[in-house]
Amino acid sequence: MNWDQIEGKWKEMKGKARSSWGELTDDEVDEIAGNREQLIGKLQQKYGMAREQAEKEADDWASRQ
């Protein structure tokens, strides 16, 4: 699934995102709203990831959806 599709179906995808990244709060997941850049930023902030690692995790997650 590409990021445009994820953004369009975010209400359905929120639970999957929360199960993948449990440290994200409901409010943060709502704030992300399917936006790849927002997700990458939150992963960097919450998990202390480098940008490249956060991008890889986000894209790997998207490809599994």
TrEMBL record:
UniProt-listed Pfam families: CsbD
Family designation: Belongs to the UPF0337 (CsbD) family.
Protein name from the UniProt record: CsbD family protein
Source organism, top-level taxon: Bacteria
Domain CsbD-like residues, every copy: 4-56
